[in-house]
Amino acid sequence: MLAKPKPNRGRKFEQVCNGARDVFLRDGYSGASVDDIARTAGVSKATLYSYFPEKGEMYREVLMDEIARVATQNPIRISPEASADEALPMMTRQIAAWLVSGPALQIHRSSVAEAARFPEVSRHYYTTVTAQLREVVQGHLDRWVAAGELSIEDTDLAADQLIRLSGALLHERALLTCTPGAREAAIRQISDSAARLFILAHRDRDSLPISSARQDGARRDKPSRAVGQ
């Protein structure tokens, strides 16, 4: 099967792509009209068609480029020397804030909505944005496992789980209500809880601080009160 020819990259190519990107991400593929795209891009329909004879070609081109651009903006910024206890709360907050940001939400929504019509675009999203974020998280988990701070059998799976824990409720709510962003307090509450759960699930009991171990022991040894006492 012959590959489709690349669109003509003339003087107004970037202008057309920028306008198309704004309309596609706002209205989706079906809701985007050529008239709206031409108006937003500030070009005539004839100019638009000179670059992209079909709307599908335009969608594929601009979404592929946008996905590649978003993939370069990895949200995780933590010191490579930071311990798991220090870094995980920061990491989960950064992931949660990114998951509810405008660009990440728009790309995710478009990739899911058009997965059947443009499977190659959705695959590109999964193998760039999703996979690269997971790769960065996994790299830190591998480091903490090697240092004996965490005990994880499958860091690839654990990285996926941590990302989903970090944005629990927030990401789904933002996707379904089409309202990007979230209050800092909500991000901190959910992401901090995710970090605590993850650490408790993957830390060896022998590595728990003495104070924590004593508190756990005290809770176990404390007699339970009968109902009504």
TrEMBL record:
UniProt feature, compositional bias: Basic and acidic residues: 216-229
Matching InterPro entries: HTH-type_TetR-like_transc_reg, HTH_TetR, TetR_C_Proteobacteria
Record bears the keyword DNA-binding: yes
Start and end residues of each HTH tetR-type domain: 10-70
Stretch list, region Disordered: 210-229
DNA-binding region boundaries: 33-52
Pfam entry (one): TetR_N
Presence of keyword Signal: no
Protein name: TetR/AcrR family transcriptional regulator
